[in-house]
Amino acid sequence: DARVTQTPRHKVTEMGQEVTMRCQPILGHNTVFWYRQTMMQGLELLAYFRNRAPLDDSGMPKDRFSAEMPDATLATLKIQPSEPRDSAVYFCASGLRTTSYEQYFGPGTRLTVT
Amino acid sequence: GENVEQHPSTLSVQEGDSAVIKCTYSDSASNYFPWYKQELGKGPQLIIDIRSNVGEKKDQRIAVTLNKTAKHFSLHITETQPEDSAVYFCAARRLIQGAQKLVFGQGTRLTINP
User: Fold this and answer.
1) B58: confidence class by pLDDT, cuts 50, 70, 90
2) Is-cis flag, bond preceding A25, omega within 30?
3) Which of A57, A69, A102, B69 fits A47 for a cystine, CB–CB 3.0-4.6 Å?
């Protein structure tokens, strides 16, 4: 059963600390998306990769957020320094662009910044 | 840009009855409309989708209809069961500067009463 995996599932950190979230897309998928979910804003797209290259990160605060794909099996989202307003659930999703538009979501990382 | 409105925000139906959730979108260039189901503590799960060249699609108890002229699409769940209780999200996709983007509605919390 192919799934997107994310680590950690929960993270509590203090304001100013660095946070790194990891995602393993479904094997063979060539697109990776990072979303943030909050009660107020709902699901927002932060960044989008295709074949490991960043295609769009316009939804991401550039001064503190960064997203990378070191290889085809790992995507990372980093926040440095973290702020309380970053508290949210962060989802990674993957898809196979060449055959469909479908996106498959991971279980998410619940981040709390105190 | 794309804006997706979803109604109602909460819906309560008796087990066995039907549930309908509606979404409208603003960008006529949107060409793909997925529906996701999100259970507590989990990531959104794709349950059905429709492309802009199709008016209706059905998969067992769920169906989606699309009216391109009016720019709205709906999710229909028949013979509802307690396990259908969840938050449902609609989304609309369009290509923006070479990057596909899903814009999500705010979600509908569906409760099935036994």
Assistant:
1) very high
2) no
3) A57
- Beta-bridge mates of residue B88: B37, B108
Judged by CB atoms closer than 8 Å, whether chains meet at A56 and B106 is answered as no
CA distance, residue B51 to nearest chain A CA (Å): 9
Q: Does A23 touch chain B (CB under 8 A)?
A: no
Choose among B43, B96, B106: nearest Cβ to A105: B43
Q: Rounded distance, CA B63 to CA A47, Å?
A: 30
Q: Which two tokens stand for residue A72?
A: 């085809």
A15 and B CB contact within 8 Å: no
**B98 neighbourhood in chain A, CB within 8 Å:** 55
- Other C-beta atoms within 10 Å of A61: how many? 13
Strand partners, B56: B65
Instruction: State how far the Cα of A86 lies from the Cα of A12, in Å rounded to an integer.
Output: 11
- Per-residue pLDDT of chain A (114 residues), as tens digits, is 689 999 999 999 999 999 999 999 999 999 999 999 999 889 999 998 988 888 888 889 889 999 999 999 999 999 999 999 999 999 999 998 765 788 999 999 999 999
Per DSSP, the three-state class of A87 is: coil
pLDDT at A58: 83
B25 touches chain A (CB under 8 A): no
Check: CB of residue B98 under 8 Å from CB of residue B31.
no
